[in-house]
Amino acid sequence: MTFSDIFKSSFIDSSTDLTVIQICSTLLLSFLVGFFIFQIYKKTYQNVVYTKSFNLSLVMMTVITSLVIMAVTSNIVLSLGMVGALSIVRFRAAVKDPMDIVFMFWAIASGIVIGAGLFLLALVGTILIGLILFIFNINMKNETPYLLLINFSQESDEVQVINKIKSKVNKYLVKSKTVNGSETELTIELRIKNGEMGFVNELKEIGSVSNAMLVSSSEFTN
Question: Are 101 and 161 in a shared domain?
């Protein structure tokens, strides 16, 4: 095809007719895939405030993207016009969680694949991505990172504190040690499985320990 062929009317006017059944089946599949993404986002959400409107936007993003791709693939002239129109669109909403970007890209990619008619690819890819996210979410919930702040006045109690922590958790790291007169403060990063926080009460019973506080070292979880 030469450059002049682009301006031939036969090429410009070329289009693919879409039947009502094709349109409905494509949009229905994109809705089902978007709803699957909706459920995965809801089940794997890690922050405090769950934003349902954002999750619903993932469903609509999948459907609308598939609609646009159907229009683009059916008519050459329309596709060129849409490229120009969409190029001026700018989104200014701040995305706080990097995982939200992953879900947005997942919804858009699914809409593109479904709109292009690659239904099998969309279904298999969606299921595999959903399983991967769900498995990683289970591992993240099993071990939650925390910061332990503990204060004591006798230096000899530091060994008992460390030994107690070592016997209760699998992983820990002393982040800082602050000595203010006779008072010593330790900041320890550790991971707790299944919310086992009872050892904090045991630390409070050690000798000169005056304060033991456990704080989430990342964002709060549901």
Answer: no
